Amino acid sequence: MFSSPLLISFSLFLSLPLLFFFAPQILPPNYFHFRFPDELDDLSLFHKATLAYTHSSPKSLSHLATINPKPKIAFLFLTNSNLSFAPLWEKFFQGNQPLFNIYIHSDPTVKLTPPGGVFHGRFIESKKTHRASPTLISAVRRLLATAIIHDPLNQYFALVSQHCIPLHSFNFMYNYLFKNQLTSLSSFSSTQSEYRSFIEILSDDPNLVERYGARGDNVMLPEVPFEEFRVGSQFFILTRRHALVVIRDRKLWRKFRLPCLNVDSCYPEEHYFPTLLSMEDLKGCTQFTLTRVNWTGSFDGHPHLYTPPEVSAELVYQLRQSNSSYSYFFARKFSPDSLIPLMDIADDVIFRY
């Protein structure tokens, strides 16, 4: 006769096929958008990135300074469609090759037309992404980890989308981020802790309660109490040390990877990064984003979409303005057919300074 524990174990084993059969009918539809094999791949990538960060000591950076005297900005493109504004970005990057790197995470299930020029060969190993799911967080973490591994000179990490456009020249952005104080990477390695990340962190959003409870009552506890839950823009510019914070996190990720029961209030990528960096190093963040978005007349969670008749020099000047001492660097969302009028004003307006 079998003992009771053996009977229980045997019963559980037999029930596994039934669990996999009925689970898709019981769990939320976006639950299976996050795959365990993808998680294992990411953990391996993050481990490599952590080692790469550790090995990029101030001493090794000083050695690299003899090759390239200045730090770089890593541009992280998160996309599920063609890079319609590639020609505009090409002009933005032109002549600044030693000062930047480009990394593109593209949904592998979407057939894209690969852009050439500076974008050639910049696609990283990517996974499928879904709106209102933690897959968007995973995509950003892959971009950050890949950029850390690829080049220790990457010191700022700017996340943009296929709908983003630059509002200033590359030199304006570069000089603003590094404050015109740096002449070499060796000097940056000793002062980089003074630089802060540009990420929006809000604690007074009117929908904060609904967003916090999107996964169910008390699900976020104890790791994320409501008073520490934050929201913010999906797009940001992180310092290298904050990029490491993101890829090393396991504690908050266990909560934010959970499926949303109320998908209309759940935008994990707008919650995870602001909450994590607020809890880990609020003083190291400016608490505002450098990407301008117009939420007037938003629909289904999407901001206003600028079309060709709206594109003008006056619009660019308006989009640059903010309520703080800084100027916006990027703006979204623009329709693909806005490229032609944007290119018409690129040299005289957008990249004039």
TrEMBL record:
The protein, known as: Core-2/I-branching beta-1,6-N-acetylglucosaminyltransferase family protein
Membrane topology reported for the UniProt record: Single-pass type II membrane protein
Organism of origin: Quillaja saponaria
Keyword Zinc-finger: no
Keywords in alphabetical order: Glycoprotein, Glycosyltransferase, Membrane, Signal, Transferase
Signal peptide extent: 1-21
GO molecular function, one term: glycosyltransferase activity
Record's subcellular location: Membrane
Pfam families: Branch
Major place of residence: membrane
Superkingdom, taxonomy of origin: Eukaryota
GO cellular component term, pick one: membrane
